[in-house]
Amino acid sequence: MCAISLSRVWSLLPARYHCGYPHQGPPLGGGRRTGAFKQAIGRSRGGRTTKIHALTDHCGRPLVLLLSPGNINDIAFAPTLIARVAPITGLIADKAYDANNLRRLLAEGGAKAVIPSTTSRKQPIPYDRIAYRRRNRIERMFSRLKDFRRVATRYDKLGRNFLAGAMLAATVAWWLN
User: Fold this and answer.
1) pLDDT (tens digit, 9 = 90+) per residue, 116-138?
2) How confident is the model over 7-50, as pLDDT tens digits?
3) How many domains does the chain have?
4) Does any domain span residue 12?
5) Domain of 166, in residue numbers
6) Assigned domain for 110 exists
7) Residue 75 has what DSSP assignment?
8) Rounded Cα distance, 102 and 108, in Å
């Protein structure tokens, strides 16, 4: 076990740290700045953005909501969404969720995947076009959520406050549907 004295540590630090108090820096408690990723804020061409990932039932009522920074791809949170609900019988998703590992996860759970293939796939995987038409239900759910100004324009700094507002809007949407 190696121990370094405090005077040795001070000599390793740059000269600007020698002025002031010896215990400078952020607090070690829970009030420390955690960064934009933890608050689900990402940078993209449109500015600072947040994505809401949702899983709905067959009627379009939201079951699970998750937040992520806007610069993270959609499929990264798909396994987390699926794990948060009871076993599902099917999943209707858009081309952003076309990946072999997600299809394999759904097949292991006994769920039917209705996901169109991306144009970059050499061998397109067939899907049920009639069932895919029902994907508009989740689009209508997001439209209902965006009727609430707090969800449409994120004014909340903290991710938990924004998610609470989105959950409240989802509860109202569930009740109205």
Assistant:
1) 999 999 999 999 999 999 999 98
2) 333 334 444 444 555 555 555 555 545 577 777 888 877 788 88
3) 1
4) no
5) 42-176
6) yes
7) G
8) 10
